[in-house]
Amino acid sequence: MAEYDYDVLVIGAGPGGYVAAIRAAQIGLKTACAESRETLGGTCLNVGCIPSKAMLHASEYFEAAAGGAMAKLGIKVTPELDLDTMHGQRKDAVKQLTGGIEFLFRKNKVDWLKGRASFEDAHTVTVAGKSYTAKNVVIATGSSVTPLPGVEIDNAKGVVVDSTGALELASVPKKLVVIGGGVIGLELGSVWRRLGAEVTVVEFLDQLLPGMDGEVRKEAGRIFKKQGMELKLSTKVTGVSVKGKKATLTLEPAAGGESETLTADAVLVSIGRRPNTEGLGLDKIGLTLNPRGQIETGHDFATKVDGVWAIGDVIPGPMLAHKAEDEGIAVAENIAGLTGIVNHDVIPGVVYTMPEIAGVGLTEEAAKERGAIKVGKFPMLANSRAKTNHEPEGFVKVIADAESDRVLGVWCIASVAGTMIAEAALAMEFGATSEDIAYTCHAHPTHSEAIKEAAMAVTGKPIHI
Ligand code: FAD
Ligand code: NAI
């Protein structure tokens, strides 16, 4: 009889966990995955990446029709919002994709253990009252919304909501206040602004989108303002009270000072996410958390407890689905004795607004701290495809080491920046110089030519400005 029930037991079926489970099974390891949600796919497929993109895509069409952009192309329509159908297509996308993971589990013979998992010891996990043993346990429990002290979220009521509630609002709020000008606030704020809400974003810091390149953050602020979002930067929310279907927020300058109030029909709390570790029984296996509540691992994703591994949002690094997925593949390979590596220096990040905002590698500020750099920039206004498509906003910026010319970071604001950034990530993964990109033939007319021209601007001159 086998010593353990499973070679690998993964806790959590988000992009980290389900990918780890499938890869482990593909390699030939006997694998189970515990998930307490009714459907597989984690935050990303159920209440994150996928439903938010479904609403962003649909609302973009609505705005193109309502805001006159389509009329400018010679297509005259007067749109009528059918929010139920819009929500319906969102739910369909989620259903199909989460069902797809269930199919992949069956295809790869991954057992889905339905229920909440917790450790009894490092090789024994209880799920729904039943114990399972495994030679290796992968913690992929993800993250959930960081609460704002004193502010109660009630997604069912639909007045003070988190990202999950903001995806499902039953009507367009007249006034929406977003607390936190990060990725969620700007994506979901954009959805409801496009559908007719007056949106105010309250951000504690002096710019939106912390962690991104300084120039990109500034330009993003200008673009969102131009689109009609009101931005209250360097401002903190000190309280939210709800009466019936209305909320009143008290705001104060971040540095302290006179307070003001704002009323809203809906308030989105999006001030970050925190790792899910509660109730896992980590104390039983002697695993402690770092000061940010995360599980620390080595480069191989092994924790300090033998046989216990961790990946995704629950460990340090950007809280992104593709980062979790790559770690899922790597951890399975490492468990099998192969070499699974994730290059954490080259993880692209994309904000799916219009225009999209994307970056990979170092910001200009961080690169400067590291040594001498050269920077090349190219405006989308001078890119023929963006110009033809009436998408003049944004730019591409390529940051390279002054001496070696190796690319250290690439930042884009462009309608299809999320697609464009893949090229930059590939170039950086291969250790490309800006000259390598500049001398690579790019198809014409594409938005990606702006990356080539920004690379040309690093050491010489682009052609089109
Ligand atoms: P999760 O996806 O959080 O999955 C963890 C799973 O573990 C959950 O299903 C949970 O139910 C389960 N679980 C937890 N504890 C237990 C337990 N004890 N027993 C059993 N099961 C358990 N990222 C992007 O890259 N692109 C995007 O466009 C994007 N959009 C987003 C939009 C929103 C609104 C949000 C909230 C997030 C978005 N993200 C996006 C982030 C992305 O969703 C996460 O980075 C990603 O889901 C992390 O994957 P994970 O596998 O680590 O964890
Ligand atoms: P975030 O970290 O991106 O942004 C939170 C913002 O809230 C920050 O700008 C922060 O300064 C601000 N803030 C914090 N406390 C505040 C307060 N009291 N008052 C006002 N502002 C305050 O977090 P967000 O937007 O909640 O998203 C969580 C994570 O989900 C992101 O870090 C990202 O990794 C992931 N995500 C990724 C997406 C993508 O890849 N397109 C889309 C959505 C989420």
Automatic annotation (TrEMBL):
Its EC number is 1.8.1.4. Binds 1 FAD per subunit. Residues 347-455 form the Pyridine nucleotide-disulphide oxidoreductase dimerisation domain. SUPFAM superfamilies: FAD/NAD(P)-binding domain, FAD/NAD-linked reductases, dimerisation (C-terminal) domain. Residues 6-328 form the FAD/NAD(P)-binding domain. It is an enzyme of class 1 (oxidoreductase). InterPro entries: Class-I_Pyr_Nuc-Dis_Oxidored, FAD/NAD-bd_sf, FAD/NAD-binding_dom, FAD/NAD-linked_Rdtase_dimer_sf, Lipoamide_DH, Pyr_nuc-diS_OxRdtase, Pyr_nucl-diS_OxRdtase_dimer, Pyr_OxRdtase_I_AS. Keywords: Disulfide bond, FAD, Flavoprotein, NAD, Oxidoreductase, Redox-active center. Its cofactor is FAD. It catalyses: N(6)-[(R)-dihydrolipoyl]-L-lysyl-[protein] + NAD(+) = N(6)-[(R)-lipoyl]-L-lysyl-[protein] + NADH + H(+). GO terms for molecular function: dihydrolipoyl dehydrogenase (NADH) activity. The keyword Cell wall biogenesis/degradation does not apply. It comes from the Bacteria. Belongs to the class-I pyridine nucleotide-disulfide oxidoreductase family. NCBIfam families: lipoamide_DH. The active site is a redox-active disulfide bond. This is Dihydrolipoyl dehydrogenase.
